[in-house]
Amino acid sequence: MGYKKSNLILIVIHSRFEFTNANCTTVDRKFGECDYIFLKSANLVLMKRFNGYKPFLYNITINACKFFANTKSSPVVKFFYESVMTFSNMNHSCPYNSHSRFEFTNADCTTLDRKFGECDYIYLKSVNRTYKYLSAKFKLYQLPRFNGYKPFLYNITINACKFFANTKSNPVVKFFYESVMTFSNMNHSCPYNHDIIVDKLPVDFINYRLTKVLPFPEGDYLCEAHWFRSGSRFAVVRIYGTLS
């Protein structure tokens, strides 16, 4: 009895997903806008074969906040969500307010009593996209003999020397004071017998204070400080910023 020879053909199919394009279209700029989206090619360090890629395109509508609170509520969406969450900050429940950011917009200092002192400089500088800072210097011509610095912050009047001696005495002023003291020589108790300097106060530090330490609502802000000595106003400092 003879056997008929036959050829066995083995077909191996390799399927691999590749990015081909990506885009983001802003529809409501009042709510937010696309900052960037791009693809970048890098060397592959690990490849693995899979048998049976079966991608499907779905038309699913979900409430995103409810899904973030319980990702098991939609297995299909959960699959795609887990594909990006490790490399994204979209990995927590609502609210999503991480895109609020404080930016310096302007700063000025007006000298009102040149016998007492004057503004030497105050300016903003942008080193690059992520590093911006404020620097300022007020030159004192008459050294203070008595306690008398009285800054006005959010319509608050304090005795500056008493505050410097006990910064816990006013929590509101303490918040703003701690926002600049690390970058200033205005970090000790009275007397002040030297020029007052703020050097390279980075906007990222202010942004952290206004969004993480004590979150402020979005909007345009002006911090205006009127400085007095013996009942006479000698300087006005204005810091402008926006939180968006």
Automatic annotation (TrEMBL):
Protein name in the entry: Uncharacterized protein
Domain of life: Eukaryota
PANTHER family on file: DAEDALUS ON 3-RELATED (PTHR20898:SF0), DAEDALUS ON 3-RELATED-RELATED (PTHR20898)
Record-linked InterPro entries: DUF1091 (IPR010512)
Pfam families in alphabetical order: DUF1091
